[in-house]
């Protein structure tokens, strides 16, 4: 996580309930902050809409805007998140902090351009008012940039401010929505949806500004290598595709279900399935404990054994020492995975059993409850697919991690498509079977690798250092080169201006002195 591990280790040095609670809270903010905040805020907005009696068509329009912005912003940014996380980690490890801010600026330029281009292309020609299109485009762009910003904020470590940023944004959204539904701004049409979207935009904009200020005020220094991270697309291209296929797999079942018999179309713009989407979003809430537990355990317990093992392997440790360190590392890893699976399994099972009463109390549709029970199991396997991928990436086994990601995407897509037309009683089964299949493949790959970890560690090492080359290295070098030329031109221009100014001041000073001498001569 590019920086949270150092902070968690400091917190856990002092054993106390307060410190442990703080560590788990920080982990939750980093691993699920934007997603959790969005889910809670949007559901509060739906609650307000119910109170105010907003029409079903306008609710569907607002829901479609948020769902599309959320899903496709993740698909767009996830591959870059994997790449930039590795880049930040490497720079922090070698203490080259001056690369952090420039890479943030460079990546944000790319994400801004791509998200703007995609959003404009999507909304072009859609039968929506221009004011609503503008806000929808803005929503997609800013959510995309927040995903990237959160990767960098794990290096800042000011988690209290991160929490305040999300809380402040949520409160502003809630307050504005409540006020504007009573005294709405006068949009041309779809007034309620437009006012709700405006409220949401103001809230996430506040969150974004606070987070951006936090990052830029911390990393106020840097160099001019804004696009240096692009070279990682040549060296670590598999990371990009791991992020892409995992995220495509994450949302493949939702996208397919948008075109099922219970899918709807609103304003000839959005296809989505409220029943399935709501059930899946709620199911993903149940896996937050796993995300937090595993992040804490990996960064505090496993990492120390991992570091000791590779330290001995790299610094001429004896075979006995390496083997002992290997066994300890494997024991800690498998114990943590099993413990996390047991805890999450118990949590998921408890929530599934209590869902009848919880959903009845919350007045949630019984069809959503039935789909939720099934998709909660799929969410359980899904999060462990991600954990397996992360563990494989710890050991630099990127090709096998890519295989797990591709398997997840293929199986989830294939099985969801198979069950799509079998009726609502089968909704979610494709997701469960697909995630379980990918989980089995991932578990087999991980166990096989760990069984021969010493052999893999030594046999897979390169015989010589390869010179960095490839199209993306070329692009990065040229972008940075043109950036440097522009800066040099600007510097030359400024220096010429300063020299000219100095020269003019000198000439002026000489003229004044000459006139003074002439006046003195006349007096004499």
Automatic annotation (TrEMBL):
Q: Which UniProt keywords apply?
A: Membrane, Transmembrane, Transmembrane helix
Record flagged with keyword Transmembrane helix: yes
Q: Which positions, given as ranges, span the membrane?
A: 23-49, 61-83, 104-124, 136-154, 161-181, 187-216, 236-259, 279-298, 337-359, 371-395, 402-420, 426-447
User: Is Zinc tagged as a keyword?
Assistant: no
Q: Name one Pfam family in it.
A: PelG
Task: Name the chain's protein.
Answer: Uncharacterized membrane protein
Identify the species of origin: Clostridium grantii DSM 8605
